[in-house]
Structures are given as C-alpha cells and as structure tokens.
Structure of Cupin domain-containing protein:
Amino acid sequence: MSIMPEAPSIPYWHLWCDETGVSHQTQCNLTNWEFKGVGKAAPQWNNQMARADSTVVFTVQPVGWVGEWHENPAPQWIVVLSGRWWIEAMDGTRIEQGPGEFSLGEDQGCTATADGRKGHRSGTIGDEPAVLMTVQLHVPPVHKPGHFT
C-alpha cells in the first residue's frame, strides 16, 4: 500500500473589486485538489474548475509597455509564459510576476476615482517583452477574493 502524497497548495494573485468599487490584490492558494488518474495514467493532483465557456488569448506586451487604468475584459486567468510584468490595483498594491506565475484578473465593476483610477494598471519589466496567456471565462465576476480555491 502506497502513502498518498500531501495535496499541493499553489499560490496565485487575485485582482478583485470590492463592494465599494475599489480593486485589490489578494494572494490566494489553489487548494481544492483531488488525487486521481486520467485514463490509464498514474494518479495525479487535479484541481478542476467549474465548466464554463472560455476564450484563450495570447498577448505580447512590448518592452516599456504600460496599460494605464483599465479593467480586465472578463474574469480571466493570466499566465506569464516569458518576460516579466507588474500589476497595480486601485488600493496601491503592486505585484510583479515572471514565467510560470499566474493570477486571476476579476476587477470588472470598479468605480472610477476622481483622478481616473479604475481597475488596474500594468506594464512590462526589463528588456524583453512579456508574453502572457489568458483564459477569459465567460462568467460574471465574483467580488470576493479566493473564491477559485
């Protein structure tokens, strides 16, 4: 009898909008794991999200690119494939991510501040483009951090 390995806990950043319309970044963890095989493959840890329509979009942000205040076009998982980028929420929280790191952009429904901040800002870091893969989920945003555990 083999011993079941300990379930993983994988961190991600969640950019979300609170009930007052202000965006925040909260570090959360994927924790809803099931240990099972797929077909004839040996068991592995799987964290299956709810089924939803989605659109995969790859982006290449040039060196020096800055996306001024904007909301994500839809709730979306964002995975950094190469390069580095930063994301700043309305509350001033700024994170940086590199290859293999990912976040959930779910800041739809923010309220613009007097100085024009709404959603988030983002931009590239360093001397190479940031290559991202996004999986846009065609579902309404949930204004609560970490609901995708």
Remarks:
- The mean pLDDT is 94.
- The longest strand covers residues 10-17.
